[in-house]
Sequence to fold (148 residues):
Amino acid sequence: MQEFGRSSYKREGWYSTGRGRGKLNASKAKDWLNRKLGISDEDVMITSAVMRTHSDDKAYGVMRVVWNKLRQEFNPQIVLSQEAGRDVTYHEAWHYVSQLLLTDQQRNVLYQDYIDRHPKAKNYTKEQVEEAMAEEFREYMAGIRHIF
Fold:
């Protein structure tokens, strides 16, 4: 697997380029992120725009870290487009947990387990495995995919 890591993540953020099902309910998304991950309302932003990635693809959500100069600390943020659909919250939540709460070692164990269970992912970069796992988590939480 090709190496990538927090330096790549800090530069670009993690984007959801797939639109979720239904309509985003901003208050429910913020409430879920707060209850499940402790993310405060001011760190979840809702925009009416569809964002663009560095490669100019449409992005319906992003998990990023910004520098708060006043507090002298990094703050994680999740930005969701009103065009995202209700499922994209889960995709971004995966990135939040994977990239900010897990150690590199824990994340690498998860990536290898994913590759072992998905032979088609044998030649994926870590970034591709991360995106595939975020999508599977979104589908699981939305009731589209069943684990067992």
User: Anything to note?
Assistant: The two ends are 27 Å apart (CA to CA). Strands lie at 14-16, 44-47, 51-52, 58-59, 61-68, 73-81. The chain is about 45% helix and 20% strand. The first helix runs from residue 6 to 12.
